[in-house]
Amino acid sequence: MEGSRQKSIIITGASGGMGSAATEEMARRGYRVIMACRNLEKAGRVRAGILSRVPGARLDIEELHLDSFASIRDFASRMSKEAPLDALFNNAGVLPRHYSLTVEGYEQTLGVNYMGPWLLSNLILPLLGEDAGIVNMVSISAKAARLDRNFFDRGERDFHQLRTYADTKLALIYFSIALAQKSGRRVNMADPGIVDTDMIRLGRWFDPLTDIFFRPFCNSPHKGAMPAVNALCSGCNMQIFSGKGHRDVPRELMEHSGDIEWLWNETLSRVSAQKK
Known about the structure:
Shape: globular
Oligomer: single chain
Radius of gyration: 18 Å
Largest sheet: 8 strands, mixed
Order of helices and strands: EHEHEHEHEHEHHEEHH
Number of strands: 8
Number of helices: 9
CATH class: Alpha Beta
Structural class: alpha/beta
CATH superfamily: NAD(P)-binding Rossmann-like Domain
CATH architecture: 3-Layer(aba) Sandwich
Strand content: 15-25%
CATH topology: Rossmann fold
Distance between the termini: 38 Å
Helix content: 40-55%
Number of domains: 1
């Protein structure tokens, strides 16, 4: 800790498997954690559990719905009273089986996994302290992604559960690169690997088989959260953290400067159009 000021971190989706694990780990390291969650009742139960294991931890629950720009802006407005903040961990994500829309009319996976963190990060950025940073949760699934100029306007016929998820994770990688370049701030990414959480339950007939033959080989939520924890506590910039340490962003991703710039400008245009 620096002096008498306790460091503060925002963790989105802090009531989920990896989110709660990251919350507990950061609390053990002396951080005050702002648990940004959509389900306050569930967040309260998670908070109580962590406090039973980490007495004296400072855990503050705040409501945040990443599928609503208005909710994100309201949350950021409340956070302005907490400045300076020391870190933002964009952990929350969804993997819905069926097509649905956000408040603004975007596909749910796109809104929660990419557009919501994009807006939140840009609103929180001015509230971060001098040495603060942002960590985005990415995924190995991005290797199978494809981003085209129809990315924001795909309809129900274009929706595919796993492919859509992968596309949003690639978009989050592109966003991380652009944000680091444009803001001059520390921005890192965390790849948890395949983690045993409810997210990998696809709602399909083979889920029971997955539970038997696949889940035992998945990372635990705590193990999956550790790359993000290490990223949050590091002084690195533009690194991808995983269970094997951290590495530079692959050159082949950095070379997609045209796609990165198009995605940034298009997102900015769409988010600005929805501003109050």
